[in-house]
């Protein structure tokens, strides 16, 4: 084991103003897309770039616990959609009155409309029984996988591709449909397709479900509950 | 509730080639920084931009379950470091022989060296007892918080700022040090500081701990285990 692989330490300063703004634009304009998918198929090389971006994510102990199942087949996506519908009926039961009416009017999935589905999974056995950094937090492997998801999502925004995260399903239904081993966690089903329009704010805010919280209320200085004097720009 | 807030649907195509490359450069060159932190303090407006990037993350049911505790005080960071050391001694016990020697030589934290610590937490009660999209996967709130982490991490890369994720601690130790309520999950402690050099590959790979897995082995087509014909560029 090398102690100091110095020849691999390379210059890494701040990006140019334009590059920095591109990164922030991806972060700021990314949306959880439900309905704006175009039917055009995605080229192979674009899909490969999105998956490479995901695979560039950090992972606890470098275990890289993720897998990506790329699903184009319409019958298979239809079966996933039916699993979603069963779970969604159960979810709607959790709300009552006007809130349930609102819930039923939301378009919660683009499983059938998006030309591509990507099922992202986490294999907790990937790095052997002891993983560096996971001993005190057994969820670190799934957290690594979510970092891969967010990489893919931001890369997709830059490519003009929308992504929608579907979490309303029973894991066993999705495992059965895609042949996923029982010990592997299904992190999410992602609807993926070209978009030419996106909402300028989160859809749930625009549709009155829940509004954005003021960032000042979420940031503390030194200890929980103490304000931080930071220059937040309310416009961004 | 509005059914179709069309005036909020705005044009959102692909970025320019240069902008797209900036996003991919942030994703590709981001590192989990352990030791390269410079002591220079971070300006308030830069910290605010990083936190705004985090707050732009997707969240299940738009619950925005995250909080960010910005810790600059040296004595407090020293106390966090001591909590890390206690946990790290326990973690080292999980390895034996040469593997334990390797573990002990890794620099696993920059808690004292980085001028700033950010503790990121997840409050599962933020959105009330029933959260849209969380019913079938109770971990969706912490996954949303991890999306915020990855946003912050990529924004930091573009700003010339390094980030290191520390997961080796007992949650109760960190809660006690920072006054975090018991029902709130500590997602991670993040060491944050300017960097002018970064490794050109993940540090754990360079130091022989574990190598990058071939992406072809992690991507399947249609069902688990079936190869996907995608044009992966092995150089990226």
Automatic annotation (TrEMBL), chains A, B:
Keyword Disulfide bond: no
InterPro entries according to UniProt: BluB, Nitroreductase, Nitroreductase-like, Nitroreductase/BluB
GO biological process: cobalamin biosynthetic process
Record-level Gene Ontology MF annotations: 5,6-dimethylbenzimidazole synthase activity; nucleotide binding; oxidoreductase activity, acting on paired donors, with incorporation or reduction of molecular oxygen
EC number, UniProt record: 1.13.11.79
Top-level class of the enzyme under EC nomenclature: oxidoreductase
Reactions this protein catalyses: FMNH2 + O2 = dialurate + 5,6-dimethylbenzimidazole + D-erythrose 4-phosphate + H(+)
Domain Nitroreductase: 27-194
Presence of the UniProt keyword Cell wall biogenesis/degradation in the record: no
Domain of life: Bacteria
Keywords: Cobalamin biosynthesis, Flavoprotein, FMN, NAD, NADP, Nucleotide-binding, Oxidoreductase
Family that this chain belongs to: Belongs to the BluB family.
Subunit-level organization: Homooctamer.
Protein name per the record: 5,6-dimethylbenzimidazole synthase
Species this chain originates from: Rhizobium terricola
Protein's gene: bluB
């Amino acid at each position: 084991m090398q102690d100091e692989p110095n020849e691999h330490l390379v210059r890494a300063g701040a990006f140019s103003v334009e590059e920095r703004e591109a990164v922030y634009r991806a972060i700021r304009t990314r949306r959880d897309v439900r309905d704006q998918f175009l039917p055009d198929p995605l080229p192979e090389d674009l899909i490969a770039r999105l998956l490479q971006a995901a695979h560039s994510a950090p992972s606890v102990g470098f275990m890289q616990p993720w897998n990506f199942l790329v699903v184009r087949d319409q019958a298979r996506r239809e079966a996933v959609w039916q699993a979603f519908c069963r779970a969604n009926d159960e979810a709607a039961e959790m709300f009552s009155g006007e809130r349930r009416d609102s819930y039923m009017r939301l378009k919660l999935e683009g499983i059938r409309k998006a030309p591509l589905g990507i099922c992202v999974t986490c294999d907790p056995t990937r790095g052997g029984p002891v993983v560096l950094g996971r001993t005190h937090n057994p969820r670190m492997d799934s957290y690594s996988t979510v970092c891969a998801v967010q990489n893919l999502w931001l890369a997709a925004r830059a490519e003009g591709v929308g992504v929608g995260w579907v979490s309303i399903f029973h894991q066993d239904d999705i495992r059965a449909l895609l042949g996923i081993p029982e010990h592997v966690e299904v992190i999410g089903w992602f609807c993926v397709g070209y978009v030419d329009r996106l909402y300028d704010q989160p859809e749930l805010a625009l549709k009155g479900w829940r509004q954005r919280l003021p960032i000042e209320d979420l940031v503390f200085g030194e200890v929980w509950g103490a304000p931080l004097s930071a220059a937040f720009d309310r416009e961004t």
